[in-house]
Amino acid sequence: MTEQEILDSLKHIEIRTGKERTIKSYVLRSSTLDEAQKQIVLSGFERYCTIFRDELTDPKTLFKDPSKPVIVEIGFGMGTSTQIIAKERADYNYLCLEVYLVGFVKLLRDIEKLSLDNILLMRFNAVDVLSHMIADGTIRGFHIFFPDPWPKKKHHKRRIMQSDFISLLSSKLEKGGYIYFVTDWQEYADWTLELLEKEETLYNPYDGFAPHVSWRPETKFERKGLDKSYQINELWFEKK
Ligand SMILES: C[S@@+](CC[C@H](N)C(=O)[O-])C[C@H]1O[C@@H](n2cnc3c(N)ncnc32)[C@H](O)[C@@H]1O
């Protein structure tokens, strides 16, 4: 790709059919890069990023080592836990989706410094990526950590965890694959537990919430929640 193609590819982050996106789970923020961010993008993009393609693919084939199972992270924010998990659990490939440009560039800079070859970043709406680009039964796990809780009732429709989205996640999982969801918003935790339990293709190995998974490091969002004495709830469901 030319430098211009790389920079242009970051401007389109969703498919719009008609006026609306499927789930408006994020608010679009600035898409401009300063000079330093442009340099990070141009130096790391070809090795550490991939672009949206409207063609169902087994994402293993996108990685340097296609023998590793693929984990998809949805909404990695600044990528703090992403890079720690990818480094420590190097037997997996990580396809990491985020629309927030500042976070995308930050994680790109960090993984370039660490030379992590088992991560690919995509700046694109996760709903579109899953619906249009990921073939069914190809994903080992989904990581969804501290997604925006959209606490007001009138905004609940913006939550990424909706029954259709959960069915979509499940269709992309291999048998035995998992959905790992964490939130500090109690009502969102209860909402998601109820939806996951309703999805017949999934199975909860725990009675309700899951115990803390030792390899997931604490993030800024988590620390903020803990500082307010919020309960961190984890959910772990597997594909039947
Ligand atoms: C509250 S932040 C949490 C970030 C991170 N997981 C953490 O624990 O620090 C949620 C992130 O999800 C991203 N996001 C929301 N909807 C998304 C979507 N449909 N596709 C990709 N990213 C999305 C937002 O841009 C935001 O950065």
Shape-level CATH architecture of the largest domain = 3-Layer(aba) Sandwich
* Helix-residue proportion: 25-40%
Oligomeric composition of the shown chains: single chain
Number of domains: 2
Question: Compute the gyration radius: what is it?
Answer: 17 Å
Number of strands: 7
> What is the name of the CATH class of the largest domain?
Alpha Beta
Distance between the termini: 41 Å
Report on this structure.
With 240 residues, the chain is α/β, with parallel strands linked by helices. The protein has 2 domains: 1-10 and 33-135, 3-Layer(aba) Sandwich (Rossmann fold), CATH 3.40.50.150; 150-240, 3-Layer(aba) Sandwich (Rossmann fold), CATH 3.40.50.150. It has helices at residues 3-9, 35-48, 80-88, 101-114, 126-132, 163-172, 186-198, 220-227, and strands at 70-74, 93-97, 119-122, 139-145, 173-183, 202-203, 233-239. β1, α3 (80-88) and β2 form a beta-alpha-beta unit. α2 (35-48) crosses α4 (101-114). The longest helix has 14 residues, at 35-48. It is globular and about 50 Å long. The site of S-adenosylmethionine has 22 residues, from α5 and α8. S-adenosylmethionine binds at residues 25-26, 74-77, 97-100, 103, 125-127, 145-148, 160, 219-221.
Annotation keywords:
alpha/beta; globular; 8 helices; Rossmann fold; binds S-adenosylmethionine; seven-stranded mixed sheet; single chain; 240 residues
Offer a quick outline of the entry:
The chain has helices spanning 3-9, 35-48, 80-88, 101-114, 126-132, 163-172, 186-198, 220-227; strands spanning 70-74, 93-97, 119-122, 139-145, 173-183, 202-203, 233-239.
